[in-house]
Design a protein that fits this description.
Pfam families: PAAR_motif. It comes from Ewingella americana. This is Pyocin large subunit. InterPro entries: PAAR_motif. By secondary structure, this protein is of the alpha+beta class. The chain has a single domain, classed as Tumour Suppressor Smad4 (Sandwich). The chain contains two helices and twelve strands; from the N terminus they run βββββββββββαβα. Strands 1-11-12 form a three-stranded antiparallel beta sheet, with no helix packed on it. It has a three-stranded antiparallel beta sheet with strand order 5-6-9, with no helix packed on it. It is elongated, with a radius of gyration of 17 Å.
Length: 143
């Protein structure tokens, strides 16, 4: 299973550029989370470029999260990103999202996905969000 890292504003590229745009309404440790199509500079070529590629299934306000396993710069270098937030990761198996679904029965598709270990993104947030979410769910169930 491969480990990927979420990207944020000011993360660097392998060619010396930096991510200069992100969603300020969603932050990791105070820094705006980068998404596909957010702007990035290049360390070797003038101008502004874009993040291409995204983490499958992860979105913020309809835009896909950028991550080290799936994203690169659209600059001529096609640079990869150097994450600064190494405590916030996601895991993917190599076969994730490689096959398009051919089923037409939505309920059968949902059952297969729920029972299949592949196609799972595993959240490893260290900020306590899961504890808070569990508490909220338990409080709702008590009502």
């Amino acid at each position: 299973m491969a480990k990927g890292y979420y990207l944020v504003v000011e993360d660097e590229t392998t060619c010396g550029g930096i991510i200069i745009e992100g969603d300020t309404t969603h932050t990791l440790f105070g820094r705006a989370v980068a998404r596909e199509e957010d702007r990035v500079t290049c360390g070797k070529h003038p101008g502004t470029y874009y993040i291409i590629g995204h983490i499958p299934g992860d979105k913020i306000h309809g835009r896909n999260f950028a991550g080290t396993l799936h994203s690169k710069s659209s600059c001529p270098c096609e640079a990869e990103f150097i994450p600064s937030m190494v405590d916030d990761t996601y895991d993917l198996t190599p076969s994730d999202y490689s096959k398009p679904s051919t089923q037409t029965d939505e309920s059968a598709d949902n059952n297969n996905q729920a029972n299949s270990p592949k196609n799972q993104i595993i959240c490893t947030h260290t900020d306590g969000a899961l504890v808070v979410a569990e508490y909220i769910v338990n409080e709702i169930k008590r009502m």
